[in-house]
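Why do we bother with holo predictions? Because pocket geometry can differ from the apo form. Keep that in mind while you read this record for magnesium ion.
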Amino acid sequence: MIRELWKEIDNHYLDLIIKPDPRFEKIQQNCAKAGLPTISVSNIHGQWLKLLARLMGAKHILEIGTLGGFSTAWLASTLPIGGKLISLERDPDRSALARKNLDLFEFQAKVEIWVGDALHNMAEMANIDQPAFDLIFIDGEKSQYPDYLERSIPLSRPGTLIMADNVIKHGSVFNEDLLTPDQKGIGKFHEMVAADPRLEASVLQTVGEKGHDGYSFILVGDSP
Ligand code: DHB
Ligand code: MG
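The structure, written out:
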């Protein structure tokens, strides 16, 4: 009942102030047709990711977990000329679908999808000469969030924002009787954030069409 209300409110503001681009609708349709789980960010959060990236003036964005490219498209839609987004996806079918979805937009040349193990690819990235990422959006395997965090630091600079999706998961992270690998991963991730003096963070709980969830925002500071 309450969730219906959350969804209605999302839809109200989506129609009133965001006026969704039909290409995002098309991405959702393609993902549904391909049988992907409906776990992309909502439209209203997609617009929010876009605004955040624009506010930061983000030119280099890393996304961990492409799925069908929905959040990828929102984040890429604000990249300036010369900007680049790299998205990491383990599943070749998903990455092919994401590529097709991103081809609906003109910014496709700014987006690379690296197929394969994200942790391996992040380690590779640390060895190539490229600018630090301004924004890193962690949205892959929840059990691997601690490893993503560890590998994000060498790809960051002071001022990089690391943002993690799904850190509340309907409150399940607080159910101690149900410590799944995902919950353990999210728990350890925050313990690592807390223990690292370079990181300053907060958590934002959200409600909406996807239920009760939340994001962590982690600002990378200077090396101690
Ligand atoms: C779920 C939601 C997500 O955004 C995600 O990245 C993975 C799983 C979920 O609701 O199960
Ligand atoms: Mg997610």
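The first strand starts at residue 60 and ends at 64.
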